[in-house]
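Notes from hallway chat w/ T.B., transcribed later so I don't forget. T.B. wanted the structure written out for a chain they're using in a teaching module, and asked if we could keep both sequence and structure tokens in one place. Agreed to drop them here.
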Amino acid sequence: MTTQLKGPITDNSAVRDLVDRSADQYREEYANTGWWHSIDLGGGRITAGVRKLDDLQSRYANFDLPKDLSGKRVLDIGCWDGFFSFEAERHGAEVVAVDCWRPEKFFEAHRALNSRVEFHELSVYEISREKLGVFDIVIFLGVLYHLQHPLLIFQRVCEVTP
């Protein structure tokens, strides 16, 4: 059964304006701080990210992962500042973080946290079992809509999962 649209499709300028204002606010905040993720560095220090700590913690909780990830390997594709990488490490996982550029804020947090997360500057299309190994959990956020060949990355992800 197909659904027929009734009437003309119109652009809702009020919604578009709201989205544009929100995007401008995020861009301005990011330009001012240089951080996308808020990360708890310990000792009361939290990075001033556009994405707030409570929001990121809530998103991580929605993954419904076990509290203890000891013995698990996690791949974080498109890690950016590294919140999800460092959170999985905090829960005991061995973590490999991948991004297509070298995010300096990731390394600031990495040093502050005395982290063991392993970072690789790679295109998602370069992900392979030979380069990175096998993973129990793959975190893949904020990347898919940037890709020219999205189905190829699913093939790559399947290659590195059992």
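Follow-up for T.B.: Helices lie at 13-33, 53-62, 83-90, 104-113, 129-132, 150-159. Might be a good example for the class.
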